[in-house]
Description:
The protein is α+β, with helices and mostly antiparallel strands. It has helices at 16-27, 45-55, 98-101, 123-136, 187-194, 259-263; strands spanning 3-8, 32-37, 64-68, 79-84, 87-92, 108-112, 145-147, 160-161, 167-175, 181-186, 199-203, 206-208, 211-212, 234-238, 243-248, 270-275. The N and C termini lie far apart (54 Å).
Amino acid sequence: xxxxxxxxxxxxxxxxxxxxxxxxxxxxxxxxxxxxxxxxxxxxxxxxxxxxxxxxxxxxxxxxxxxxxxxxxxxxxxxxxxxxxxxxxxxxxxxxxxxxxxxxxxxxxxxxxxxxxxxxxxxxxxxxxxxxxxxxxxxxxxxxxxxxxxxxxxxxxxxxxxxxxxxxxxxxxxxxxxxxxxxxxxxxxxxxxxxxxxxxxxxxxxxxxxxxxxxxxxxxxxxxxxxxxxxxxxxxxxxxxxxxxxxxxxxxxxxxxxxxxxxxxxxxxxxxxxxx
Length: 276
């Protein structure tokens, strides 16, 4: 049974998600549709790229991923279908795919050219669904598009390294449901540049000199519960995707605040690591 995932900024209130699913079931009644997220911030390409990058690997090879973010067709925002790492991605050529192609070379990329057969002001429904169902039936990419050799690059997805290799300058690329802040600095880059040296992380009002490998590692469970520093403890850690995350242990954004609010961090704010 073919699997198609949906990642959009449509939200849950409107009819858009239901209409897309209904159109797919009308074309293929044996398809399996999985929602990755419909709560992407409107038109937030970097947020969508981060989420799809960290979700797609959990699906079987051959899964088709529809990404409905900033998908309106115009001369600077064409539609593409990409075969990468054994998975298919159908989206706009607006930089979303570049976060994946920066690590893995695509096997095939095409610019979708079926628009002359489809009149649409809702491309996810009218174009992306048709392309996904074509692939699900075993169709090739060449039938629905012309080969391309490159995609639009998303700026700010890689940290900047100074010439002396003493500083990494990154940016906030994602804020999760708990208000934890994810930076575009990965553990692999940190280890390569840091080479075991001591360091200091600066992010507006927050500073850190240690990065944990998980939330619980930051808590001393040898102490009695009443003496532990738990709720409200600030920490830096490598998250499950290998990115630097600045967090508040067991934070609740609606009560005590979150890393984003307490550290004063928003999207694209600078996060700097200086090595000694």
